[in-house]
Structures are given as structure tokens and as C-alpha cells.
Amino acid sequence: MQRMAARFRRRNVLRAASLLLLISLVAGCMLPPEPKTDAGRDVFNLYIVVLVLAGIVFVAVEGFILYAVVRYRRQPGDDVLPQQLHGNTTVEIIWTIIPTVIVFILFGASMVALGAVEARAEEPGVTIEVEAVQWNWFFHYDGGPTVEPRGNEPPTLAVPVGEPVRLILSSRDVNHAFFVPEFLIKRDMIRYPDEQKRNELEFTVTEAGTYAGQCAEFCGTSHAEMVFTVEAMPREEFDAHLAALESGETPPPAAGECEQTIEIKANNTQFDIGEFEVPAETAFCIAFENQEDVPHNVSIYDGGTNLFEGEFLNQAGSITYNVPALPAGEYSFICDAHPQAMSGDVTVTE
Amino acid sequence: MATTTLEPRAAAYRRSWVIDWLTTVDHKKIGILYITNSFLFFFAAGILALVIRSELAVPGLQFVDQNTYNQAFTMHGTIMLFLFIIPALSGFANYIVPLQLGAPDMAFPRINALSFWLLPIGGLLIFSGYLFGGAAAEGWTGYAPLTQQGGVGTDLWIIGLTLVGTASILGAVNFIATIFKMRAPGMTLFRMPIFVWTVLVTAVLILLATPVLAAGLIALFIDRNYGGSFFDPSVGGNPVLWQHIFWFFGHPEVYIVILPAMGVVSEVLPVFSRKPLFGYRAFVFATIAIGLLSFSVWAHHMFTTGAVFLPFFSFMTALIAIPTGIKMFNWLATLWRGKLMLTTPMLFALGFLSMFLIGGISGVMLASPPIDFHLQDTYFVVAHLHYVFFGGSVFGVFAATYYWFPKMFGRKLNEPLGKVHFWIHFIGFNLAFFPMHQLGLSGMPRRVSDYGADTGWTILNFASTIGAFMIAVSIIPFLINVVATFINGEPAGDDPWEGNTLEWATTSPPPPYNFDTLPPIHSERPLFFLTHGHGHAAERPSDLEESAEDDVERREGPV
Q1: ipTM of the complex model
Q2: End-to-end Cα, chain B, rounded Å
Q3: Could you give the number of structural domains in chain A?
Q4: Using the beta-carbon criterion (under 8 Å), do B143 and A218 form an inter-chain contact?
Q5: To the nearest whole angstrom, how far is the Cα of B336 from the nearest Cα of chain A?
Q6: Are residues A281 and A343 part of one domain?
């Protein structure tokens, strides 16, 4: 009898221990990514506190349900009514007060973490205007270059490590959202009628590296493809990176003679022609007309290699591109902001 | 001159059963119409879910293009919420509430019929987008200014939803009038069954919130078709205004979805524990508190817009956890020291408790703005909403189906088949939706037709797709059960479950006028008293006094 009771106890201890292990394994899988910003760390820590509380509540309540189903199962043939309890004021008061206390604690902790997330430095290390369009990104460095999307590569937002980075977020069209999972932060990008009003986001990256970003507000057909990359690097590297961007920018179009002019128009996120042909080893012009207030350009690629980058027209307007001589071959032309919808073939003949 | 003698219930002329069902104003038939129509839309929206999950199982677009995918999740959400869950629960309410009140029908039977028929019309209008170049594809939340870019399908979505909303509002008026004005003698408000209370609070929420949606939809229609400038920033409108209007409706909407299901669970648990609902009064006040609070939290859907006063909305959202917790504890205390009978409706009710708990916990996490900044618009939210809508309301719908099917059709659904349905459903549901918590935590956004192979999200997505197909498979035993029971089911009798409430005090199905006589009503469990009498100690001495007075009245008749 003693031995049976001891075995029973041991078996239950084992059951409880393995259940606890299972719960912690599950909970351990339910974590955000390792945070790479200062404020992200505060959010991560808050999440851990909430997860632990959640785990306790989960185990207690689910545990009771399982216990009740086993312990209080009606035995066949038992027709005696159980005690008809209608309520118990003391117990009900206690289980009202306890959740109230937990709620207040959670709210308080949230407000503290919110303060860390929304903190603004006196002097940010860099200020960048991030502009979202359907379905790509433009990064305008304050007093510096503009990063435009190129080909099928997600555009890269270079930032200095260890310094506050301030983003000014806007949209050209529908709602978008700037989201970097490893920073544990996102913010909506909304086009307001009052163009001065824009959302701001500030963070300090703690570790150099490459971080994936993605639009997190459903914005239409290619929402799933609206990705970008954040590259955090030491300040010296960052300055060199910006300098390289500035010098590599497309020079303004030179007034010159055009042996041949190809006319291309853009409207409704489409080119009006699907192909054109030019002779080899001969510079030519592209008279490009953008007919809508959506950023478009024309670039020419040989596979993944860029042969010509046309300057963007961000609003309706016209521009003449001077395209350098190209060797004979088959290439493609695309709009860098809309490579899926706007592309065509370039045949350069002997 | 010959005179004709009319028999009390005989039809004066023969009518085909088609005409009968098309023109009925009997709340019981209308209830069945609601439920049947809802299940048809459930299957349609369920197929759309399978399209979504098939596409997301592995990276790459295998089955549909991006635009078709976007239509699929838009229609899935719209149909599930507006044409399945709410009408299904409405249908059960329609059938059961007059019976539980001891009333012969709803207050406005013809409006009742109109409320129903607007639903298939509205639903077909919404679906007809597929015939006109594509259904709405902006998400069930239809954010502006993205909706400006939609085609005819978006206009049809707006019009169809406005009709469905109108149906809801009419139904709400009907329920409120019925509940306040048509209770049987002796049934004070605090002797009404809990299901009726939840329907009452839900009806008030519908009455106050749905007109706001209707106004927003009309404004959106004007923006899209008549050059309006409510929400379109390119002509001076404000996109955030749409979000405020939509969510001011949208949040009470989710309580409209869950409260009647909580009512069902609160009917099922006591019957199959053979104990009363613990803390009836507290439960009523908690329900009312949830109803009131639901109007103060809407902007927690907008934490990342940068346009919202975060502390207020975070606090009010966290506050809702308190009355919800009270309800959970009341349910648990009902089980405590009961004698549990694990019938299929009880299994679904217990499933509700377990799954709604998880959904509630993830909801409290989202109530914290810093945590929400990471999780908003990710699969974590998709997990949360499915645990509360599906693990909560849909489990409630199935509990109601198995519980009240014998009353409606005179036959009990087969128990073993019901259990097979439950277990495949329960396991499939958790396999489909639990991994989504981790997908969201690791950064997978929602409403994406595809994801990169390098994200590491493939395994969890694949598991989730298997779960979704398991849910689909679980419907098979359910359908077989329904058909087989119609053909050759075990007769149920008036009261197959030893129920507590008045619907079990009449035949299965009830006659058109519902009751021949009503038992005396002294508590929220009039039938319990009838069955078990005062053989055990009365809970409240006043019950004994009141019943003595009623006995006198019955003997001597009304004065």
C-alpha cells in the first residue's frame, strides 16, 4: 500500500515535470527575434514578462480543465445530482481583484517600454526620409543622396551603428508600413492630405549587420514583394558608403544630338511599347514621358548587369535619356520601381 | 348558405413546402433558414481558406496569381464574419430565444423574414464580383485609399455589405423588442437564460455599431464613384478617418461574434455538468461590461498609425480582460465538483474554453503598444483572431448545432460520429493556427501571397496547411451525421439532455405556437425545478415563497 502510494506520487511528479518541460519548450519557441536595437531589447524583455504571466495562466486554466474532465466525469448509472452551487461572493471578489492587479501591472510595464521606444534623441546620427510607393522604397538621406530601387534587388537602407537613426515616413499612394522584424518595430506610412504631416520612427542599431525589412500594411497586388534591406555599419564605413552613392548618381542629361530617339511612355504602371531595336555601337536617345504622378524610369539590363540607369521622373513629365553605345545582343528594359509590371525587350542589331 | 368550419391549425388550402419555406414568418423555420444559409457560406469561405493555405504551403506562387490570392483572403474574411458566424448564431438565437422566453414567436415576424432574405441577396452580391472582373481584393477591412483602386467588385462588396448590415440592424431591433416585451409570466430579467442575455447585449451592440459601418460604406461609395473626398488623400481626404469609422464598428463587431457563442457555452456547460451556471449575476454584469467597454477600445487596431492616443486605448483594452476572466472562472467553477457528461456539445464547449483562453492571452499581449508595434499586421494577429473567432465562435456554433439539433428536428445526431468530428476538428485547428504565433513573432507579415525561401518560414506554413486540410476533412463526418440523422436518426423526445430551460418543455420540434402550457417560472432554470422539484433544498428561500403564490394563482386562475 505504501509502495503503491509512493509509485503513484513519483509517477505524478514525473508527469508534472514533463508537462512543465513541454510548456517551456513551446514557450521557448514563441519568441521574437534577438533584438538588434536598444528599444528592441526593452520590448523583448517586456514580452518575456508577459509570456511568463501568460504561461502561468495557461497552465493553470488548461490544467484545471483537464483535471475537471478526468476527476468530475460522471460515472455510468450515477443519477445523484451534485451540489447545486450558484456562487460564492468571496471567491468571486478574489478572482476579480487578481486579474485587475495583473492588468495594471501589464499596463504600467507597457507604458515604460513605450517610453523607450518613442524616445527621441536631441541630435539623431542621421535623418532619412523613407518614401513608400506601390511596390517599392525610396530613401532620401537628409542633405545627401537618394537611394532608388534598382532591378529586382531590394533597396538597401544604410545606417550607422550605435547612433540614433531618425526616419521620416511617407507614402505616395496607399497605406504602407515600415517593418524590420529584428528591430521589433514597425510604423505605418500614410499619405495625408496635409503633406507636412508624416510619421517618425527612431531607433539605434546595436550590432552591425544586414537586416531584412518588408512592407507590413496590405497595399495591393505586389504587397508580398515589397521588401528592403537595412545595412548597419560603423560610422566611417557609413560615411564612405554615402559618398560613393553621391558620386555614382546619374548625371543630369546632357543636351546633345540624338542619332535615333526611341519614344517610351509610362501610364497605369505600364510602358506603351514592349520592345525596341537599335543599332549596335551607336549612342541613342530615349524620349521618356511619364503620364502619371507615380515614379517611373527606364533602365537597361543585360540579365542582372545594369547597362544604363535612367533618372526617375517622380511626377508626370518628360525627360530625354542619352543612352551610351551598346554592343550587339538581346537585353531588357524595365522601370526600376515596377520591374514586374513594366518591362520589355531591347534588340541591339549588328 | 353553407358555412365552413375551420379547424384551428389546418391550412385552408394546400401549399407546396417550397412556398411555405419561402414565405414563412415562423421564427423556427427562419432560424433553420439562417443556419442552413450560413453553413453554405461557411463551406464557400472554407474553400477560399484552402486556396490560401495551399498557396502558402511552400514558397513560390504555384496555384494562383497575386491578385486572385488577394481576392481570396478578402472574400474569406468577409464571408466568414458577415455571412457565416453572425448569421449562424443569429439563426440559433432566432430559433431558441422565443422558446427560452416562453413566447410564441419573435416580436416582428415579418421583419424577421426580411432580415433573413437580405442575407443570401447581400452575400451573392458580394460574391458576384467574381463575375465582373474580380471580387473585392482590399482585405475584409477595406482600407482607404487602397479601395480607390478596386474595380466593380469593390462596389458590389460595399453594396452587399450594406444590405447585410441592414439585415443585422433589423434583427437587433426584433430581438430587443422580443426580449423586453415577450417574456412569459414570472420570467424577470434575472431569470432569463444566459443565452438570452448574451443575445440581448449583442443586439444592443449591433444596433449601435452597425449604422457606423453603413455610414462609412456609403461614404466610401461616394469617394469611389462620385468624387467624394472623405478618405482619399489625393483630393483632401484622410485615410485614418476610414480606419476610425471602420474600427469603431469593427471592434464591437468582434464582441457581436463572440458573445452569443459564450451564451451557448453557458447553456451547455451547466446541463452537462448537472449544476447551475456558477455566478449567474456576475456573468450578466460581466457581459454588460464587455458590451460597454467594447466601444472604448477600437483604436487598438490602429496602434501603428501614429495617430492614436496609445495609453487610453491600451488601458481600456487590457481592462476588457477582467470581465472576460470573470466569465472564464465562472465556467470553470461550473465544472468544479460537477458530474460531467462528455457528449459532443460538451466537447465543443470545453474546446471553446481551451481555445478561447489562448486567443484571449494573445489578445492581452497585443494590447501592449510596444509589443503590438512588433506583432501588428503579422501572422501573430492571424493566429489570435482565429483562436477567438474559430476556436471561440465556431466551436460555439458546433456546440449549439449538436445541442439543439434534437429540438429542431426531433432526432439526436449520432454521438460517435460527433466525437470523430470533434477530435479531427480540434487537432486540425491547433495544427493550422498555433504555428502562426511563431510565424508572426519571427516577422511574417499577413496578407502576403508568398514569402521567401530564405526566411525559414516554410516548415510552419506547411504544417499549418496540413491542419487546414484536416479541418476540411473533419466536416465529412459532420455532414454524414446530419444526412444520416435526417434519414434514420434516433428520436429525441422533448428533453433528451435533461435541460434547464424552457425550450425543452415542449415537443421536438415544437408546434407552430411553441407551447401548450408553460411550467411555473421561479429561477433561471424553470425546467430543472419542474424535473427535480424542491426535492433538494431550495437555493433561495424567496423561491419557495414565490412558488407558493404562483401555485395559488394557478389554482384559482387570474382575477
Answers
A1: 0.91
A2: 41
A3: 3
A4: yes
A5: 6
A6: yes
Residues of A in contact with B276 (CB under 8 A): 84-86
The whole-angstrom distance between B353's CA and the closest CA on chain A is 8
Nearest residue of B to residue A39, measured between CA atoms: B370
B539 touches chain A (CB under 8 A): yes
Q: Which residue, among A174, A194, A198, would best test binding to B if mutated, counting the most B CBs under 10 Å from its CB?
A: A174
Query: In chain B, positions 342-371, which contact chain A (CB-CB < 8 Å)?
Result: 342, 350, 353-354, 357-358, 361, 364-365, 367-371
Q: For residue B276, give the H/E element and its range.
A: none
Question: Considering the entire predicted model, what is its pTM?
Answer: 0.87
Residue B40 has which C-alpha cell? 453554405
Dump pLDDT digits (tens) for B378-395.
Answer: 999 999 999 999 999 999
Three cell numbers at A233?
555599419
Residue range(s) defining the domain that contains residue A296? 261-349
Cis peptide before B252 (omega within 30 of 0): no
CA B72 from chain centre, in angstroms, equals 22
Q: How far apart are CA B320 and CA B286, in angstroms?
A: 9
Q: Could you tell me the strand order of the sheet in which A227-233 lies?
A: A156-160, A227-233, A209-215, A176-180, A185-189
A108 domain-assigned: yes
Coil vs helix vs strand at B555? helix
Of A29, A83, A186, the CB nearest to B438: A29
The answer on A233 and A130 residing in a single domain is: yes
pLDDT tens-place string over residues A128-162: 999 999 999 999 999 889 998 887 789 999 999 99
Cβ-contact B398, B463 below 8 angstroms: no
Residue range A40-99, pLDDT digits in tens: 999 999 999 999 999 999 999 999 999 999 999 999 988 899 999 999 999 999 999 999
Question: Are B474 and B428 in contact, with CB atoms under 8 Å apart?
Answer: yes
Which of A247, A279, A308 represents a domain boundary (last residue)? A247
Whether A237 and A197 have beta carbons less than 8 Å apart is answered as no
CATH number for the domain including A137? 2.60.40.420
Residue contact B377–A78, C-beta within 8 A: no
Residue A83 domain-assigned?
no
**Rounded distance, CA B93 to CA B66, Å?**
39
Domain presence at residue A45: yes
- Which of A73, A103, A182 to probe by mutation at the B interface, max B CB count within 10 Å? A103
> Searching chain B, which residue's CA lies closest to the CA of residue A219?
B146
User: Are A333 and A316 in the same domain?
Assistant: yes
The owner of cell 521606444 is A117
CATH of B27-518, one of 2.40.50.140, 2.50.20.10, 1.20.210.10, 1.10.3300.10: 1.20.210.10
Cβ atoms B230, B219 nearer than 8 A: yes
Q: Is pLDDT above 50 for B6?
A: no
Does one domain contain both A46 and A143? no
* Residue to test with chain A: of B69, B280, B368, B539, most A Cβ within 10 A: B368
